[in-house]
């Protein structure tokens, strides 16, 4: 069981499964939402239980994606693409230990100019299924 929450604790969640290797998304939307880049792990919807869902607000950031955040403290928590059986959960909201390591960087062509990616983790220009390396 993994647990997580927003900064103020109004939204909490439990994940009843091992976590998959997270990915770091460097696209401009994720950077603007998170203030840097977004790191999340995909969780089967049935393995995620949200407590305080009445404080969870959704922002439709594109025709296919909505982003969930706490309406009290503003913590970015979830990334939800329509039609998928999984939902992205913010790694920064999870309590340690997560027993994971970063698996990939995506949308690296959009990364900010103020940092370098030098951790040796695979990098992709798009989604992993399109698997283009820079």
TrEMBL record:
<feature type="domain" description="CENP-V/GFA">
    <location>
        <begin position="2"/>
        <end position="116"/>
    </location>
</feature>
<comment type="similarity">
    <text>Belongs to the Gfa family.</text>
</comment>
<dbReference type="InterPro" id="IPR006913">
    <property type="entry name" value="CENP-V/GFA"/>
</dbReference>
<keyword id="KW-0456">Lyase</keyword>
<dbReference type="InterPro" id="IPR011057">
    <property type="entry name" value="Mss4-like_sf"/>
</dbReference>
<dbReference type="Pfam" id="PF04828">
    <property type="entry name" value="GFA"/>
</dbReference>
<keyword id="KW-0479">Metal-binding</keyword>
<protein>
    <submittedName>
        <fullName>GFA family protein</fullName>
    </submittedName>
</protein>
<keyword id="KW-0862">Zinc</keyword>
């Amino acid at each position: 069981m993994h647990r997580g929450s927003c900064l103020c604790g109004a939204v909490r969640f439990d994940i009843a499964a091992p976590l998959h290797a997270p990915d770091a998304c460097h696209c401009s939307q994720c950077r603007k939402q998170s203030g840097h880049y977004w790191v999340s792990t995909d969780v089967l919807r049935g393995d995620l239980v949200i407590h305080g869902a009445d404080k969870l607000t959704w922002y439709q950031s594109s025709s296919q994606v909505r982003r969930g955040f706490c309406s009290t403290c503003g913590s970015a928590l979830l990334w939800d693409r329509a039609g998928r059986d999984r939902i992205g959960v913010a790694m920064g909201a999870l309590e340690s230990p997560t027993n994971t390591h970063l698996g990939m960087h995506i949308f690296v062509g959009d990364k900010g100019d103020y940092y370098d990616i030098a951790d040796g983790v695979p990098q992709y220009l798009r989604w992993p299924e399109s698997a283009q390396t820079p």
